[in-house]
Amino acid sequence: MTVTPAFSNDTLLTPRLAISWSIVALFVGNVAAIIYCQQLLDTNVLNTPELLRNGAVISLTITMSALFQIGVLATAIQIRGVSFSEYIGLALPSKQQIIVSLVMLDIFVVLVEGSIYLLGGNLVPAFQIDVYQSAKAIMALPALFSALVLMAPIAEEIMFRGFLYRSLTQQPGKEIYAIIITTLAWSLLHVQYDLMGLMQVFAMGLFLGAVRWKTGSTGLTILMHVMLNFQAMTETVIKVDGLTLLKMMAL
Description:
By secondary structure, this protein is mainly alpha-helical. It has one domain (13-250). It has helices at 15-41, 55-79, 84-88, 95-118, 126-137, 141-168, 175-187, 195-215, 218-250.
């Protein structure tokens, strides 16, 4: 059973207004993150390409950007005079829906990553390896894990499967269109990956969108997104430090 919000469509932002607010949130978040990093590092991040693959810089920009994005969207919702958590859909669904969704997530990951492996693709993109190694070199892995496993999923789900999805589904029958639109927009944020990686992101977006539709819960998609990113980071650790970990376990 889908969770029903305790407010009417009269309080929802129109699709055009919601998209505008989302663009503003992304812009404000990224500008704030860039300015913060430039002040902290005393260098122009945009003119230093190697910093865009630096784990410490990535951690800072993701965390700062996420906080500002959520703040802008919360402001937009507050102006409508409704509850942020209700508008976004943060309430968890039933225990049965959670269990079914997590089982389906496991099956989905096996199918997607199995397909990538059979097609000769890389389960761990070069970008992830560079970011991990650079963060490890300066002992910034806790900050990197916090940014990628917690902050990024929370901010992205609130914006795409929460804020935008709610605003694009004011009329019954618009759910599939909303899933496709939000998935396309979400995929555009992951241009650091190659074509196969982008296809994987797009497939994951469709899957998370379907869960959002059937359960009515962005809280659940946040949980699933966190698990997906945790798995990706775990695979990166194994890829880079697999032999080291085996030696440590053998001692």
